[in-house]
Specification:
The structure is a single chain. The protein has one domain. Helix content is 77%, strand content 0%. The chain is built from two helices and no strands. The model has no long low-confidence stretch (mean pLDDT 85).
Length: 86
């Protein structure tokens, strides 16, 4: 398996590419777990896969919250920078 390297240029402004990639991976995991769950007939496995799906959904919420915090932080920094440029 080849592993892709992603370099963060730290110029993402209001949208962090690392957070976006992480959220996308979590969403794909949810789809896979749901697929496995739907194919499974063993109740305990279905329950465990549902729990994994819930954990991934929590991860996505955390990533989205972090993205919003970063956006707010960058907005404040822009306002400060604009204040100095006046």
């Amino acid at each position: 398996m080849t592993q892709q390297k992603h370099q963060c240029a730290h110029n993402c402004k209001d949208l962090c590419s690392a957070l976006e990639r992480a959220a996308e991976k979590e969403k794909k995991s949810i789809l896979k777990y749901a697929e496995f769950r739907d194919e499974c007939t063993y109740p305990d496995v279905k329950i465990m896969l549902n729990e994994l799906i819930l954990l991934r959904q929590k991860s996505i919420r955390l990533l989205e919250e972090t993205k919003l915090k970063l956006r707010t932080k960058f907005d404040v920094l822009d306002q400060i920078r604009e204040g100095f440029n006046m």
